[in-house]
Design goal:
The structure is a homodimer. Chain A is about 70% helix and about 0% strand. Chain A is mainly α and about 300 residues long. The first copy, chain A, has a single domain, classed as Farnesyl Diphosphate Synthase, CATH 1.10.600.10. In chain A, helix 1 packs across helix 4 and helix 2 packs across helix 6. The longest helix of chain A is centred in the last third of the chain and has 28 residues. Chains A and B meet through helix 2, helix 6 and helix 7 of A and helix 2, helix 6 and helix 7 of B. Chains A, B: This is Geranylgeranyl diphosphate synthase type II. Chains A, B: Pfam families: polyprenyl_synt. Chains A, B: Its EC number is 2.5.1.1, 2.5.1.10, 2.5.1.29.
Chain lengths: ~300, ~300
């Protein structure tokens, strides 16, 4: 993602990340939790990363509301952005567990269960998920908006979990090849991106057609994100990724390059990038931050 | 708990359990989830048990609203009751994991990770938690009530997780003896009971003083529940419990009988039972279902 703030329209990316991290840190610190649990939540919630989902929340808000240029984010928007990041952090902590992906490193740091222990990683993952809902309910004054945001967050989480099951505990239900791959990714990666865009839109008071445009955009970007990810897994090396490479390919997993070849997958990135732009047409010029985000994600490195 | 419906005031206990189980089953079945995930959610969500928390939701509602005598439960109340049961089921699934309590049996049945596998148990636990929030948001029409219920559910879950950390991953923070034991149980067991009573009250439109009375009642019953549990662990045998007995005592865990002796703990049950009745005084005659529930829980067997 582009972090050159001079090219941003709307809230500068670095300010966005600072606000997200500060809110997450303050909320956990003030919640009244056992110290070791709070430490574990912060270790994971504030880990290195590009804050793609909170960024999508804010850019989707801006695409409906207009650019956020100065001052702190509206409280409900900040809560939505932090909430979805907490859900993302929860998913990483549990995915890394020995019974799941069994990863020792994430972005060059020990995973939480290596940093602490497995019991704490299970409980801290649970805690990040439950805190995300609490944070939203405590930081949104408009009940209708608050309930809508909680609903989006819950549905995104449930769809993500379904995607994880489709991916790692597959049953033979007749869905194969590219259809199976798309089903996995529309849920596993796509659900939180879709939820991010919809939550941002809802905070801006988007109408049904705007929510629909944001949803289609996010679904498209979500698939593109995953094709790029698959391509990066092939082309990057362990040192730059902080985790084992080509792990998916070696494990015989479905990937876009595996199904369409590297060139086919690269062409698919371009097709999806164009489709993302098309999805934004109903939102007009205000959607420029989302156009830039799609373009950034199409060429991102890990 | 007393399941003799002839002695019930308000909704018969067996009808209550039927409605709770049916709603949970229908919601999971219609959610559109991978079949194996749905099966895992139902295995745990519909496992044997007395549905203490949903019962407390409904009896707290009745204590404010008056007895529910005929017809199905109001939709919001049913959602609150099923939601808290899902959170309880999630906590059992994760507590049983090898990295936590490592239990193979629960109430005579294989625990979920023995019935399926550890990855599915992690994901299904996560799923029960996230679905509980989704179910509440989708089944409560009044946004202010819905948001309040989600807030209660989230806070109860977070406090419960904190209690689990205080219990199983304790740090030396100077809190010792009975104070430490009460802190553990006010969170670990107490939080969901407190949340149940408050959610039931909120569904009935309880005012602040009624919510306060319900909270005090639930906190008291929650501690009593735990003292009874500790006493049952000493007096029951493996065959009737479906799990290893005296496990806590052997592991050197803090227990009420361990700290106060068996007779001291039995006296504490009576004291807490009286305090629960006292807490209900502001609610008057309508609180009779909660008085009976406290009396039932004081003499319960596993």
């Amino acid at each position: 993602m582009n972090t050159d703030t001079s090219s941003q329209i709307g809230m500068p990316q670095d300010q966005l990340v600072v606000e997200i991290n500060a809110k997450l840190r303050d909320y956990v610190a003030q919640r009244g939790l056992p110290r070791n649990l709070a430490d574990a939540l912060l270790y994971s919630g504030l880990g290195p990363g590009k804050r793609v989902r909170p960024t999508l929340v804010v850019r989707s808000y801006e695409a409906v509301h207009g650019p956020l240029t100065d001052g702190p984010m509206p409280e409900a928007l900040l809560a939505a952005a932090v909430g979805i990041e907490m859900v993302h952090a929860f998913s990483l902590v549990h995915d890394d567990l020995p019974a799941m992906d069994d990863d020792d490193l994430r972005r060059g740091r020990p995973t939480l269960h290596k940093h602490t222990n497995e019991a704490m990683a299970i409980l801290a993952g649970d805690g990040l998920l439950a805190l995300s809902f609490e944070l939203v309910t405590r930081n949104v004054n408009d009940p209708a908006l608050g309930l809508a945001l909680v609903g989006e967050l819950a549905t995104a989480t449930n769809d993500m979990i379904a995607g994880q099951v489709y991916d790692t505990l597959p049953e033979d239900d007749g869905v194969e090849g590219i259809d199976r791959l798309i089903r996995i990714h529309r849920n596993k990666t796509g659900a939180l991106l879709r939820g991010s865009a919809r939550m941002g839109g809802r905070c801006a008071g988007a109408d049904a057609s705007q929510i629909e445009a944001l949803t289609r955009y996010a679904d498209t970007v979500g698939l593109m994100f995953q094709v790029v990810d698959d391509l990066l897994d092939i082309t990057s090396d362990a040192a730059s990724m902080g985790k084992a490479t080509q792990k998916d390919a070696e494990a015989g997993k479905l990937t876009y390059p595996g199904l369409m070849g590297v060139e086919g997958a690269q062409a698919e990135v371009q097709r999806l990038q164009a489709e993302a732009h098309e999805a934004l047409e109903p939102l007009g010029a205000a959607a420029e931050p989302l156009r830039r985000l799609a373009d950034d994600l199409a060429v991102r490195r890990k």
